[in-house]
């Protein structure tokens, strides 16, 4: 049970998720500061209000009944900026890397296993043996019975040996 949990943790997905959460939290604070200090003042300027919150409508006498559209715009801007950065910095490059890996794997054919190679060799040997037997049967059937020297006369390196001149006798007889 513990080994399975360890394998799950070391698989990589959990580690990637942990890194993404930490980076997302750190980046979220940067985006929040950006929108609070740059975007909200621009929204308030466009809305013509001095309140940095921007577009807000109070429905009743209580401040709890205020509809703050500026806060909604800020939240939407935070989300759009974070989503765009995560997509262009993390998701898009990872998809390209994955695509390249898949292309590289598809390009080369897989190597045959030892068993496949042995089967191929066996099949080739059987084919050669059957061709050799058929060739010998055709030759004997076409030309009829032949003596051994005639049968192998057309093949190089076979047949009768050429006549050699007699060797001189270099041994001396004891009488001579």
Can you give a write-up of this model?
The chain has 176 residues and is mainly alpha-helical. The chain has a domain of 102 residues: Orthogonal Bundle (Non-ribosomal Peptide Synthetase Peptidyl Carrier Protein, Chain A). Helices cover 66% and strands 3% of the residues. It has five helices and two strands, in the order ααββααα. Strands 1-2 form a two-stranded antiparallel sheet. A hairpin with a 7-residue loop joins β1 and β2. α2 packs antiparallel against α3. The relative contact order is 0.05. The mean pLDDT is 72. Keywords: Cell membrane, Ion channel, Ion transport, Membrane, Transmembrane, Transmembrane helix, Transport. It is found in: Cell membrane. Pfam families: MscL (PF01741). Homopentamer.
Instruction: Report the β-strand fraction as a percent range.
Output: under 5%
* Helix content, binned percent: 55-70%
Briefly note the structural class of the backbone: mainly alpha
Net shape? rod-shaped
CATH topology of the domain at 2-103: Non-ribosomal Peptide Synthetase Peptidyl Carrier Protein, Chain A
Mean pLDDT: 72
Intertermini distance: 105 Å
User: Superfamily at the CATH H level of the domain at 2-103?
Assistant: Large-conductance mechanosensitive channel, MscL, domain 1
Radius of gyration using CA atoms only = 46 Å
CATH architecture of the domain at 2-103: Orthogonal Bundle
DSSP E strands, number: 2
CATH domain class name of the domain at 2-103? Mainly Alpha
Helix count equals 5
- The H/E string reads HHEEHHH
Q: Can you list the strand order of the major beta sheet?
A: 1-2
Q: Would you identify the regions where 5 or more consecutive residues have pLDDT less than 50?
A: none
| Major sheet summary line | 2 strands, antiparallel
